[in-house]
Design brief:
It is built from 6 helices and 2 strands. With 107 residues, it is mainly alpha-helical.
Amino acid sequence: MPTREELAATVRTVISDVLGTEPDALQERTSLADDYGVDSLELMEIGARLERTLHLRIDPDDLLSARDVGHAVDLLHARAADPATAAPGSRPAGAVIDLVPAPEGSA
């Protein structure tokens, strides 16, 4: 499992690739909607790239709920650290991003 810092670097890189910006321009409190005007299609592209990169499935509806880059990283890190909460149907109340291992051969 990647450290939070490694995961944050990966998330910033993926987002910057989609937005055409530099990873360093994305800070913990960067709001993709407010600061970059990210629409749902761009957010789905970010989610799809994160799925491929991290080999995890991210529920698109839940991805929309992340407040900012740091919140998304925290949620991804918590899910990656606890496989029991990543299983379908086992998402605890208040969870925002539901991650489950991607099917073999889907990456």
